[in-house]
Write a structure and sequence with these properties.
There is one protein chain. Helices cover 68% and strands 0% of the residues. The chain is an all-alpha fold. The chain has 2 domains: 9-64, Orthogonal Bundle (Arc Repressor Mutant, subunit A); 73-186, no CATH class. The radius of gyration is 20 Å and the shape is elongated. The chain starts with 8 loop residues before the first helix and ends with a helix.
Length: 189
């Protein structure tokens, strides 16, 4: 029976995740992960066959971490704003991971739609239909328009171009929502 690895999969992923938070996934190198653990690279390759396999595990951890940002948003916030606040909070606090998940490593949706992440997307569409009396098609249109707008805000935040307060960003998002809603209700979309 082979010896049990000194470092668990979780230990290695956690160390690599911390590196990715600072330098992105491309900054996750075996030597750096080993240095963070205080060991040689051997334990890494005992657990992972390749660095790409480790980077994929880090990506999955980043996706879970992104999901946790939804829990930070006040429950009283409407679903569409919670979704946006989750993205914006993540972009502000984790610009490198935001880039990995939404820009560099964005995976198009199977239906060819937007690369939306997070469990709140369907909840948001359902809420738009229920609370605003929108058809499924109009709810999808509004959600997609709003996602694109929010994504743009996030990119401006991650590259340091936009440094507005939460209140100012919430006003921008509310104004955009109202404008898109009026457009839908006018029948001119």
């Amino acid at each position: 029976m082979p010896p049990r690895p000194k470092y668990s999969r979780e230990n290695i992923v956690d160390a690599a995740f911390e590196l990715a938070r600072k330098d992105g996934l491309s900054g996750v190198m075996a030597r750096d992960v080993a240095a963070a653990l205080g060991t040689s690279t051997s334990p890494i390759f005992t657990v992972f066959a390749t660095m790409e396999e480790l980077r994929q595990a880090v990506r999955e951890k980043a996706e879970d971490y992104y999901e946790s940002f939804g829990e930070r948003v006040d429950e009283k916030t409407p679903a569409f704003m919670r979704f946006c606040s989750q993205m914006i909070g993540f972009a502000r606090e984790e610009p490198k991971l935001f880039g990995e998940l939404f820009i560099d490593g964005a995976v198009p949706a199977a239906d060819g739609g937007l690369p939306v992440r997070g469990s709140s997307a369907q909840e948001c569409r359902t809420m738009l239909m229920r609370d605003y009396g929108l058809s499924a098609d109009d709810a999808d249109f509004l959600f997609n328009q709003f996602w694109i707008y929010t994504f743009g805000v996030c990119v401006l935040i991650t590259n340091g171009t936009l440094t507005l307060s939460n209140a100012a960003i919430n006003k921008l998002l509310t104004d955009e929502f109202k404008a898109q809603y009026v457009l839908i209700k006018s029948g001119n979309r």
